[in-house]
Amino acid sequence: MPLPRGAAPALVALELQRVQAAAEPIVIKASNTIAVLSGADIPLPIEVGPADAIPRNSFVRIRGLPQGAMLSEGFGIAAGLWAVPLNGLPKLRMRLGAPLAGETRLTLSLVTVDGKVHAETTVALLPTADTSRSAGPPRETASTGEGPTPRASGDAKPAAPPPVGAPAAADLAQAKALHAQGNQKLASGNVAAARMFYRRAAEAGFADAAFALAATYDPEELSRLKVVGLRPDVAAARHWYERARVLGFKGAEERLSRLGLR
User: Fold this and answer.
1) Among the four 86, 132, 191, 260, which has the fewest Cβ within 10 Å?
2) CATH class of the structural domain 26-142
3) What mean pLDDT is reported for the chain?
4) Mean pLDDT across the stretch 104-125?
């Protein structure tokens, strides 16, 4: 939007900064390769920038994690798929559950909750026995503004990712059934049992269940249930509301904002 004539220099500078940030491509910085050792905490340094160009409600999605691998930040969405909030990237670490059989390639994507990919790059995990290809220097992969960044011709292009956290049709049916059982337990006053059903459905990627599970820990929502012997847990509520937000549940953002006031 054009500024009025005679606008203060500070406003002009801010507008210029905004325009420059909007034109600058988003970049994911990560190492080409990382040597890994089973059972050890492995630093997984990732940087995303520039900060002014990063869309709101975005996070880094990591695909291709080996079976049993765990990350120190964020949470698992499905097998081999993890969502990491941007504020967790500086201290992100990974622990493997079993030795790597060979090279494993991770795909790192900057994603918004609508599933749009704004930048993408890959990292190769190598067993420590393969010392000839140790961790290389960080590289940059810029976005095009239209989706995933093109790769060099020598790189194999991974299959297109599914929508964020979307379960397969059979898994979705099972998750809905678990969610319905959780609702029945909640209606009968058995919150502990309801949480177990909600959690199983949420871990399968069902957003409604993640939201319902969060509500059973939310101080305000729990008080409405008028149950005795259960204490609210703001940290647990925030965790599951965040997961529901990542999975696309529209009401999660408002609940997170409300918890932020506590």
Assistant:
1) 132
2) mainly beta
3) 76
4) 88
Determine the pLDDT at residue 18: 59
Task: Classify domain 169-260 by CATH number.
Answer: 1.25.40.10
pTM recorded for the entire structure: 0.49
SS (H, E, C) the chain: CCCCCCCCHHHHHHHHHHHHHHHCCCEEEEECEEEECCCCEEECCCEEECHHHCCCCEEEEEECCCCCCEECCCEEEECCEEEEEHHHHHHCEEECCCCCCCCEEEEEEEEECCCCEEEEEEEEEEECCCHHHCCCCEEEEECCCCCCCCCCCCCCCCCCCCCCCCCCHHHHHHHHHHHHHHHHHHHCCCHHHHHHHHHHHHHCCCHHHHHHHHHCCCHHHHHHHCCCCCCCCHHHHHHHHHHHHHCCCCCHHHHHHHHHCC
Domain ranges of the chain: 26-142, 169-260
Single-letter amino acid, residue 196: M
Please choose, from the candidates 193, 255, 248, the residue with its C-alpha nearest in 3D space to the C-alpha of residue 221: 255
Joined together, the tokens standing for residue 240 give: 């599951």
**Per-residue pLDDT tens over the stretch 228-254:** 667 888 888 999 998 888 888 888 888
Give the residue among 68, 145, 76 at the shortest CA–CA distance from 104: 68
- The pLDDT of residue 56 is 86
Q: For residues 119-129, give the mean pLDDT.
A: 83
